[in-house]
Amino acid sequence: MKILHINEHSLTKGGAEAYLFDLIKRLKIRGHECYLAYAKEEPDFDISSIRLPSIGQVSAINLERDLASLKSFINKVRPDLIHIHGIWNIEVIEACLRLKPCLMTGHDYRWLCPDSKFYWKRTQSPCNRAPGWLCAPSSLKHKCVTLRPHLLRRNIQRIQRFKRLIPEIRAVVTASRYVANRFRASSFPEAKTHIIPYYCSFNPLDSPRKLPKEKSISIIGRTADYKGIDYFLSSLGKLPADVRGFIMGDINEKKESSILEMARNAHCEDRVTLENWSDRKGVARL
């Protein structure tokens, strides 16, 4: 089978990309041909690909040019299936649906929630309401989606527009029952919603590793507030003083300052190590 994968990033920026690249590798081993359409960085592995900046843009300046390039690429490689991963542009999804059967992997909630997270910042709690125009007064109370009129309208209309595409999408794959239930609550039929947990691509050791002398806990990936950094630091603060915490991810100067402030509040600043990387080699090294 020929499969065209579409994702904003073509380098490992987080868990979604790590999963995507492992998936491509495993599909190739099984004899499938894989292709990639991406928005930003050149891929650092061997794959026939095309760069379409519109994939990563909600409102794309060169949309018509990119859609024409996408159609030309599809006509050239003739995929049997398009696998949609991280896309921000609804027109790209619509174009894919017109051209070939499409499968979507739901890595997040960008097509279900106007704020993409189902997360209330003010109370640091999940949102369980149905998305729509009532998200505006809800955000006044709980702080989630932006209340700037043009952005609010665009974000809500994006969700509504995607909902109309659901009958045309062959299936959606999620890594957990919780995410699957979010898709089902947004009108995805249960028969089209499949749960396939993310797999681990590490080769198993011949024997269990020895326990390290230094006790530690770690968190790796994007360091956005809704990813649980505060809970990690709170947990570290409650552990014995000989336990260290390692935080690895997209840590810049601003994020480092914010994370260390949270660590101070959790009384564990002297036990936290921050490292600006996120890859398998680093995990093995750690």
Structural description of this entry:
With 286 residues, the protein is an alpha/beta fold. It has two domains: 2-195, Rossmann fold; 215-280. Helix content is 35%, strand content 19%. The chain has nine helices and twelve strands. The strands form three sheets. The protein has a seven-stranded parallel sheet, sandwiched between helices. A three-stranded parallel sheet has the order 10-11-12, covered by helices on one side.
Overview in brief:
By secondary structure, this protein is an alpha/beta fold. 35% of the residues lie in helices and 19% in strands.
What is the H-and-E element order? EHEEHEHEEEHHEHEEHEHEH
Helix-strand category: alpha/beta
**Under the CATH scheme, which class of the largest domain?**
Alpha Beta
Can you list the strand order of the major beta sheet?
A: 3-2-1-4-5-8-9
Low-confidence stretches: none
The number of helices is: 9
Write out key terms for the chains shown:
globular, alpha/beta, single chain, 2 domains, 286 residues, 9 helices, 3-stranded parallel beta sheet, Rossmann fold
Per-chain topology:
Blueprint: E1 2-7, H1 15-29, E2 33-38, E3 48-51, H2 63-77, E4 81-84, H3 90-99, E5 102-105, E6 119-120, E7 125-126, H4 135-142, H5 149-163, E8 171-174, H6 177-185, E9 193-195, E10 215-221, H7 229-238, E11 243-249, H8 253-265, E12 272-275, H9 280-285
Parallel strand pairs: 1-2, 1-4, 2-3, 4-5, 5-8, 8-9, 10-11, 11-12
Antiparallel strand pairs: 6-7
Helix pairs in contact: 2-3
